[in-house]
User: Which sequence fits this backbone?
């Protein structure tokens, strides 16, 4: 199966999502947050750096739960164009 290349907008949205998650993580370690969400630290690293710009819904939901973020807030903030 060949995956369709991401559009520039999808890449930007992934970068915004990563920045939001990184900001919410604060001083907590990547390993701590990833483990609490049931992910590997490498998966979280890829999401935070935008290398995995389209993570699965359940991955984002798990991270949001651990970080105390609402999914609604993440969707709105990650979808907005930078001002």
Assistant:
């Amino acid at each position: 199966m060949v995956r369709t290349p991401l559009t520039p907008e999808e890449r930007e949205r992934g970068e915004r999502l990563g920045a939001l998650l990184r900001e919410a993580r604060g001083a907590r370690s990547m390993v701590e947050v990833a483990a609490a969400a049931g992910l590997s630290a490498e998966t979280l690293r890829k999401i935070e750096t935008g290398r995995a710009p389209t993570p699965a819904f359940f991955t984002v939901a798990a991270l949001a739960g651990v970080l105390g973020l609402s999914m609604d807030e993440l969707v709105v903030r990650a979808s907005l164009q930078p001002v």
Notes: The CA atoms of residues 64 and 82 lie 21 Å apart. Helices lie at 8-25, 30-37, 41-49, 57-67, 71-79. The chain has a mean pLDDT of 91.
